[in-house]
Each structure stands twice: as structure tokens, then as C-alpha cells.
Design a protein that fits this description.
The strands form two sheets. A ten-stranded mixed sheet has the order 1-11-12-10-4-9-5-6-7-8, with helices on both faces. Strands 2-3 form a two-stranded antiparallel sheet. The protein has helices spanning 24-30, 66-70, 74-85, 94-99, 107-110, 115-124, 147-150, 162-169, 190-198, 212-220, and strands at 9-13, 18-19, 34-35, 43-50, 89-93, 132-136, 156-160, 178-181, 205-208, 226-231, 262-269, 272-278. With 280 residues, the protein is an alpha/beta fold. 26% of the residues lie in helices and 22% in strands.
């Protein structure tokens, strides 16, 4: 039997910016959603779920996605769908793609119950039917059989390097999949990724969905505006022999270069917390 979603409790709701016209079925559960008004540049935000002890993945084959951390929380899935519905672009890394080979980064995929509501949100914001999915892979070691690449009506762009392009061209990707090399080799920086996206269309809202290596790039270069973070009520643990990724994996912020965030929203549902931090 499908669980009925009750209104979330707002412990602290920061207002300001542009109010999104949410359908009543979503607003009655989540409340109001405000996004910053960006006249001069794109609004870049990320969405992650973490355990109490900071893990964002169990790091077990077949059980690597966020649903294992959230306990398949319908509230977390609804918010993820809502955030996808306002996005022009969803950016993922190679690891996120490989962890969910049958997934599509669309709002109605993560929360089918509100498929029509998500369509209404996109229409009210004059968005395209589907957000552009951007896959970031420096080495180009991905296969064309993933569902994302085989679904014809979803626009996809692979950002890579010259080295990665050679590896990708050895596989037979559908012609509609755009592949763009940004430099010879090495990790792609967030500024390089955003510059490539900006050069395509007039995009406003860029959603970063992972993984932690990709998020680290955006935090290091301070190109992330906001982070939506679900704290799920479980502890997963880790030890010296078994690594479980945390929110940030390839960046270190030491004294003298700390990265502080402003808490601008707290919501609660049952035993989970839904936080929103600003970095601007």
C-alpha cells in the first residue's frame, strides 16, 4: 500500500528570491520553494542524501545509489524530483552513471506519482520538456548500453578530454549523443564544465547530482551556489578495510582556507532532516 505523504515541518524557512509556482499537491507537502534570482549568471545547486555519519553511498555493487542511504524515502525522492523539475541541466559524473545504469535523471523517474505536477512546473518556468543530462568523464571509460544513451527523447552531452574522446569513439554511441572535449587530459574543473554548458544554450538552473568527486570540484572552485542535503536517520559505518564515500572526496579545506556555508532552510519529515545551505 502506497504511503501517504504528510506535510513536512518547517523548522526554519529562509525566504528571498523568486518563488516557484508549485502545484498544490507538492506545496501542501513541501511548502514554498524560493530560488535565487540570477540576472548575470547561472544558478548552480546540488542535491545529495547522507547518512548520520556522513556516507553518501554504501559502496556495495548494485547498492551504490542514494536510495540505499535514504531508505527509499518518498520525501527525499519527491524533493529530488522537484529540484530536477526546475533544472535546465542535470550534471552527473561517471561514477554516478555506473552506479545506476538503468536510471534516467528526470523528475518523473525518481517520483512517478507527481509526473504531471513536474510537467506543470517545467511549463510554468518555460523549460524544455526534459533537462539536458551532462555526463562528465575525463577518461571516457563508459559504455553506450546505459539506458540514458538509449532513450531517444532525452538530450545528452558527454564532456570529456581529447584522451576521453578517443576512448568514447571506440564505442558506438547513438548519433544524438553529443561528445565534447574540453582539453587534452586531466580532471575537468567546474569552471570548464560550466563554461561549456553556458556556451550551448541560455541555461539558468544547473543541478549537480554527483558524485562526491564531481561535487568536490565545484566546492574547490567555489562555483556552487547552494546544497540541498537530506540527512537520513541511519548510521552505515566504515573501517580501514572498507571505504564508504562521504559528501566530499577529493578536496581538503584546511585552516586558512575553510569553506563555510550559510544554513538557509531546515525541514523535517518523520526522522529525516532536509537542509539547505548557501555558499554565496
Amino acid at each position: 500500500m502506497e504511503k501517504e505523504l504528510r506535510p513536512m515541518s518547517s523548522l526554519y524557512l529562509g525566504e528571498g528570491g523568486e518563488k516557484v509556482d508549485l502545484p498544490e499537491s507538492i506545496r501542501s507537502i513541501y511548502g514554498d520553494l524560493y530560488i535565487p534570482e540570477r540576472a548575470d549568471r547561472m544558478y548552480v545547486y546540488a542535491n545529495f542524501v547522507s547518512s548520520i555519519d556522513g556516507a553518501v553511498s554504501l559502496n556495495i555493487p548494485g547498492l551504490c545509489d542514494g536510495a540505499q542511504i535514504s531508505g527509499h524515502s518518498p520525501y527525499d525522492a519527491m524533493i529530488m524530483g522537484m529540484l530536477r523539475s526546475i533544472a535546465d541541466v542535470v550534471v552527473i559524473g561517471k561514477g554516478t552513471l555506473m552506479a545506476s545504469p538503468n536510471h534516467l535523471w528526470l523528475p518523473e523517474i525518481i517520483f512517478p506519482k507527481f509526473k504531471e505536477e513536474f510537467r506543470m512546473i517545467r511549463a510554468s518556468l518555460n523549460k524544455r520538456e526534459h533537462p539536458l543530462t551532462v555526463v562528465v568523464t575525463s577518461e571516457g571509460i563508459i559504455e553506450p548500453f546505459y539506458r540514458l544513451f538509449q532513450t531517444e527523447d532525452i538530450p545528452v552531452l558527454i564532456l570529456t578530454t581529447d584522451k576521453g574522446t578517443k576512448a568514447l569513439k571506440e564505442n558506438k554511441f547513438p548519433d544524438r549523443i553529443k561528445i565534447r572535449a574540453l582539453k587534452d587530459s586531466g580532471l575537468l574543473t567546474s569552471n570548464e564544465i560550466l563554461k561549456a554548458i553556458k556556451g550551448l544554450y541560455r541555461f539558468n538552473n544547473i543541478l549537480i547530482e554527483g558524485g562526491p568527486v564531481l561535487l568536490s570540484e565545484f566546492l574547490q572552485e567555489m562555483t556552487l551556489d547552494e546544497l540541498f542535503l537530506t540527512i537520513a536517520h541511519q548510521i552505515v559505518g566504515r573501517d580501514e578495510s572498507f571505504h564508504r564515500p562521504s559528501l566530499v572526496e577529493t578536496a581538503v579545506f584546511n585552516p586558512g582556507r575553510q569553506l563555510w556555508a550559510k544554513l538557509c532552510d531546515i525541514r523535517k519529515s518523520e526522522d529525516d532532516l532536509f537542509l539547505r545551505y548557501s555558499f554565496r
